[in-house]
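Entry for the shared binder. Reason: the reviewer on the internal report wants the predicted structure included alongside the sequence.
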Amino acid sequence: MTTIGLVTIGQAPRTDITPDIVDLLPDGVDVVEAGALDKFDSNEAVEAAVGPTEGEPIFVTRLRDGSSVTVDRESVVDLIQVRIDEIAANEEVSAIGVLCTGHFPDFEAPVPILEPSDLLHGWATSIAHDGTVGVIIPKQEQVDQTFEKWRGFEIRTAAGSPYVDEDEVTPAAQSIGTDADLIVMDCMGYTPAMKETVREQTDTSVLLGRSVLAKTMTEVL
């Protein structure tokens, strides 16, 4: 049986993401999951260890209980590599996907590591390399790092978290409007239903991190 690994910057299992990925994979593919924050037993413990640092890039992720948490990017890098090492030790694993669209230093593994940040950038370059790209992100505090990450594109950003009860995606899409040539939903927490909402509001093509990861992963299995 073919096996893939999925590593989240939050806590595993990511029951809000993994089923959508599995649905897009070929039949008979097994999945093993691990999370950078698995060893922490509370939101408070996470914040104390890897909470955001003023002025530094942040990521938004999900804990096992369904709550969201904001973490400092640099603080979780080593934790992610540890989980990658653990999964890669399984000789049946043929590829590892990172369940975060943020930009990271290169991770190491004896198998391909697929990072949605690189994949989304590559797909966007192919689709709208000289156009305007709308980028939807979870938090307004991520705007500066988003412009840095998408440097080289003409972008418009809007914030709307996928991890809250109220609908923040619709107003984010409306803020970007209908003039973008492509919309990128720049967080793995966004769902296929949220993608359809954005498509309806903007009348343009939309890239969703989890489906881009899954579809690319099928090509390396």
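Summary line for the report: The first strand starts at residue 2 and ends at 8.
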